[in-house]
Structure formats: structure tokens, C-alpha cells
Specification:
- The protein has 244 residues and is mainly beta.
- It has one domain: Lipocalin.
- It is built from 1 helix and 12 strands, in the order H-E-E-E-E-E-E-E-E-E-E-E-E.
- The protein has a 12-stranded antiparallel β-barrel.
- Strand 5 and strand 6 form a beta hairpin.
- The longest helix has 19 residues.
- The chain starts with a helix and ends with a strand.
- The relative contact order is 0.12.
């Protein structure tokens, strides 16, 4: 009888504990965000600028991660269009070790004022994470591929390419992070003709699922389509971001 009573008490306690436990949250296969910002000035000069951004990560918690990001920038000055740029990147990474990874990616750029109707650049290569922990990521990569570029009044230009990149992320706190990246693509037909993209930004959480991001972007093309096009374009952005 005592054995039976003890068994009933033990089973009751176990059932109570199990009932009180919160089941673990399901793993999210997709994470990402979308956002935008808008700025107006008036008086001696009138400017209107807005930006749209999107990023997504597919992480099944295996060795393979798929990343995608896109942005659209548009601005006018005294009702005259002064900025019109679209870009996106799709990248697949496969980890060989905790630090070494392979990647394949496709980049796209359309920039009206750089006179780039389209710029497609598929590439692949290998990368190495110099620092890889919960707070800091510092990685470099290099590879090869090709590009297809169309400029006004010309046929599509084609060439092989050599690529190099670096990215850095540092979590200042559980709700704030600093990011920086630079990518470079050289044409194998002419290594003096290359495209460099640099970005640096700070992201901070305002409320749950809503962040504010401040970023500086710099796009440099060593040989623009003609002498009237400047090599360097910069943008300073502020955006509110909704996470999913």
C-alpha cells in the first residue's frame, strides 16, 4: 500500500511540474526586416529623399545559410530628380568549419546617375571568419565570377571578375549593434576598372520588433561610362525597421 501511495504522489508531482513548464519556442526558419525613411527640407532649397530596405535570412540551423538584402534610394532637389538607385544581393554560405565557409552570390545594381542601366555580377569563392563569437563577427572572403553591364547607348559589356570582401559586426548591447562592410569587384579585362561598395551603420531597438538604423553608404566606380559621371556617390540614411 505504501508503495502504491508513493507512486501516486510521485506521478502527481511530475505531472504538476510538466504542466507548469513552458514549451520551448519553435525555431524560426526565416528572419529578417523591412523598413524605410523619409526626409524633407524647405526654404532656400527643397529636397525630398526616401529609402526602402529589406533583408532576410534563411537559417535551418545547419551548415547552410541563405541571405538576401535589397535597397531603393530616391531623392529630388527643387523638384528635380537627383538620386535613383536600386540594388540587391542574394548569397548562399556553406560552413566547412566554424571559421571557413564557401559562398555563391549574385549582385544587381541599377543607378541612373551613374548611368548604369543594369549591372549583374554572379560570383563564388571562399571566406574565413577571423573572429566569430556571440558578440563579434569579423570575416573576409575572396572569389571569382563574371559581370554583365549595360550603359546608355552601348551594348552589354561582359567580363570575368575577381572579388574581395570584408564584413564586421559588433553588438554594443543586447539592443544595439554596429556594422561595417566593404566589397570590391575587379574586371579581368581591365583590373583598373572596378566597383567598390562601402557601408557603415548603427542599429538600435526602439520597441519590440522595431529598430532605428543610421547608415552611411559609399559607391565608387573607378571608370564610369563617360567623363561627365562622377566616380563617387555617397548617401546618409535614417530608417525605421520592422523585424519579422
Amino acid at each position: 500500500m505504501r508503495t502504491i501511495i508513493a507512486s501516486i504522489i510521485t506521478a502527481s508531482i511530475c505531472a504538476t511540474v510538466a504542466w507548469g513548464q513552458t514549451p520551448p519556442a519553435p525555431m524560426k526558419l526565416y528572419t529578417g526586416s523591412f523598413g524605410g525613411g523619409f526626409a524633407l527640407t524647405g526654404g532656400n532649397s527643397e529636397t525630398k529623399n526616401f529609402n526602402l530596405t529589406f533583408d532576410m535570412v534563411r537559417d535551418p540551423k545547419t551548415k547552410n545559410i541563405l541571405k538576401a538584402n535589397a535597397s531603393y534610394l530616391r531623392g529630388t532637389q527643387t523638384n528635380v530628380l537627383s538620386l535613383d538607385r536600386t540594388s540587391f544581393n542574394i548569397r548562399d554560405e556553406y560552413s566547412l568549419t566554424n571559421r571557413v565557409f564557401l559562398f555563391g552570390q549574385v549582385d544587381y545594381l541599377r543607378d541612373r546617375f551613374k548611368e548604369i542601366i543594369f549591372y549583374w555580377a554572379p560570383s563564388g569563392g571562399v571566406g574565413y571568419k577571423l573572429i566569430n563569437n556571440d558578440r563579434t563577427l569579423l570575416a573576409i572572403d575572396g572569389g571569382a565570377g563574371g559581370f554583365f553591364e549595360r550603359n546608355p547607348g552601348t551594348a552589354v559589356s561582359k567580363s570575368g571578375s575577381v572579388t574581395g570582401g570584408q564584413r564586421f559586426t559588433y553588438k554594443l548591447s543586447p539592443t544595439a549593434a554596429f556594422t561595417q562592410s566593404v566589397t570590391n569587384a575587379w574586371k579581368t579585362k581591365d583590373f583598373d576598372d572596378y566597383l567598390t561598395n562601402f557601408s557603415v551603420g548603427l542599429t538600435s531597438t526602439l520597441i519590440k520588433r522595431v529598430d532605428i538604423k543610421i547608415a552611411f553608404l559609399d559607391s565608387y566606380k573607378r571608370k564610369p561610362p563617360n567623363l561627365t559621371v562622377k566616380r563617387n556617390d555617397t548617401a546618409f540614411l535614417t530608417a525605421f525597421i520592422m523585424k519579422f
